[in-house]
Amino acid sequence: MVNSYDMKRFSLISLIVSLLFVFSCEDKKDTTPPEVTITSPSNGSKVNEVVTVSCMSTDNKEVSKVELWVDGVNTGLTDETEPYSFQWNTTKYQDGDHTLIVRGYDTSDNEGDSPPITVKVDNTVSVPNSISITNVNFSNGGFTIDWSKSTDGDFKSYTLEHSIESGMEDYEDIFTTEDVNVTNTRMENTSPLTFHYFRVTVTDTFLYQTKGSIYSSSLDPIPDSVDVKSVTYDLDKMTVLWEKSKEGDFGSYKLLYSKTESGDKDTLETYTDESITSYSTTTYDPLIENWYWVMITDTLGQSKIGVGKTNTIDSPPTQPILYDIVYDHVNSVFKLSWEQNTDYDYKSLTLYESLSEDMGESREIYKTNVITDTTFVVTMIVEDEYKYYQIIVEDIWGLIEKSLIVNGSSFQKIVFSKIVFNPNESGEIYSIDINGLSEKRLTNNNVHDLYQKYTPDGTKIVFYSSRDGSAEIYIMDFDGSNQTRLTTEGGGDFQISPDGTKIVFSSNRDGSEEIYIMDIDGSNQTRLTFNNKDCMQAEFSRDGNKIVYIVDNINDYDIFLMNIDGSSQVELSNNEYRDINPQFSFNGNKIVFQSTRDGNYEIYSMDIDGNNQTNLTNSSSPEDDLTVSPTDSFIIYRTNGDLWKMRTDGSNQEYLTNSGHSPVFSHTGLKILITKSISGYNQIFIIDTDGKNEKRITNNSSHNEFPSLQPRQ
After folding, report:
1. pTM, full prediction
2. Are 399 and 334 members of one domain?
3. Do residues 177 and 117 share a domain?
4. Strand runs (DSSP E) across 521-670, as ranges?
5. Which domain holds residue 359?
6. Percent of the chain at pLDDT exceeding 90
7. Strands 46-47 and 117-121
8. Which end of the chain is more exposed for a tag (fewer CB within 10 A), N or C?
9. If residue 187 lies in a helix (H) or strand (E), which one and from where to where?
10. C-alpha pair distances (Å), 39 with each of 54, 72, 392
11. pLDDT digit string (tens) for 442-478?
């Protein structure tokens, strides 16, 4: 049985054991604090905005958390898991030095601080980059403001500020956006006639702000002028064209008009559509100046007048050209023609006729409003008269223009060569009326255009020319038009057949001078002689069926006869003398020629078969320039420098005129053209076949040669 003493003893022992156990446990409690080291930022470094503070913390047991302390003040930033770090917002602190420690806690509530580090907070470099305004443009009653885009990663907003003071001491916020991509806005209902100032303030997420530079608007300029480009007209209307305005604040065009450049300007039209750049009117007078200007006005009422322009005052019609008048003696008419008018405003053409060279008492003989009408025939023209003609063209505005006065002549024409030395010798062909008036140049080549002869109908002229480098035969109309080359391989002396259909000529195209024949148009050129000797001076018989010619036998010339096709070639004279210039008599049964067989050149005749060769002159003086009348049996020749005539049998030898040479009969045989030297120049005269009525035709300082009188049917 346990007594009370034992119980007390046991209780005491138990108490002692318990106390010993307690004291033993207290002796083993954790009292070691954690160790902490800041790894970033480094001591003495600069920091700004939000900086990461990293640390390492270890403990003999276990770290429960770490805290960031700044300047001895708990920041409230803790981290309970490794790796330990804090996002410290430096913007809440003054710029300058600050002391950082990290305090660590273990599970035994032991705490330990890291060695302190000092960092320098510098948030002066943390503000956003400034934003510049790039453009302020006024249009449609307001400004469009553009600025550059922010590149800051912590962008928060743009705020556009406006002021009418250049320093922007007093400004207003007119626009704010948090969209970094929005870089423009509009400011409506503003006047560009005063300066406006703008600035963009950019704010970042830390509410740091940067104000950009101040940008001033420009005063709205007076509109650029709009110039009139052209003022033109046609038969229906006058049209004004001007440049299109490029104004952004276009208001209107106002078209102004005046009859003079310095006169008062009247308003014709006002246009508010800037695409309208033309104006037309059917009420206009092109005979005066019509000045137009454009006044441009912008939406603010500013205006400017551009450069004006007027129409070209309508000119009179192009001067009409009345060509040389052709007299058709067969039909007794004047053929008139003129250059076609090309004026757009042509109205009519009127032809006038007068007996006076100054068009006194003229009368209208023809009128047309058809612009393509360019010919007219005046009938019932009598021979040997002059009439004068002029055309007047009128346009639709009532302006007129006159042609030069052109005379129509029904006188016979004489065609001749005018030979000049300037400095080289050249011959040109002219025509002149038989009365010595109305001289006209037909060729103009400054080469040799010579030996011209009218065709039997008087409508064309065959002649010799070297214009293409070689001696060739040409043909032209009697007025000098339609000059056409007939031969291409050389052509010498020639004669035209009595019916005007053939030309016989000499040519050395095959080596020696031979006789050829061709049609009047140059076709069917055919060689007739094959003597391999020079053949020349070919002459048609009066009926055109035979040809007489001479052959050069080196020391003498002999006369031959053949048909026009070259057949039946017969030698008519055969001696050691020079028999030249053979011609058929009027009736065709005799051949008259010149010969030296009696010592000097005498005139001979012979039958067409060569018999009965007879000296007709029997003179001690030489005779030359033989020509036979085409209508009667007599001959013209020259002896001792004077011209004589005689019958083809040698009888009735009569003196005609002194000092003449190169006689040419008219086709009627009633007139003779001769050439005389006057004051050193050969001049052309005309006389009757009896030597009477001698008249001088040419009177100039040139040698006038080879005359031919125009035939008349």
Report:
1. 0.61
2. yes
3. no
4. 526-527, 535-540, 546-552, 557-563, 570-571, 579-584, 590-595, 602-607, 614-615, 623-628, 634-639, 642-647, 654-657, 660-665
5. 326-408
6. 79
7. parallel
8. N
9. strand 184-188
10. 5, 19, 115
11. 999 888 899 999 999 998 999 999 998 889 999 999 9
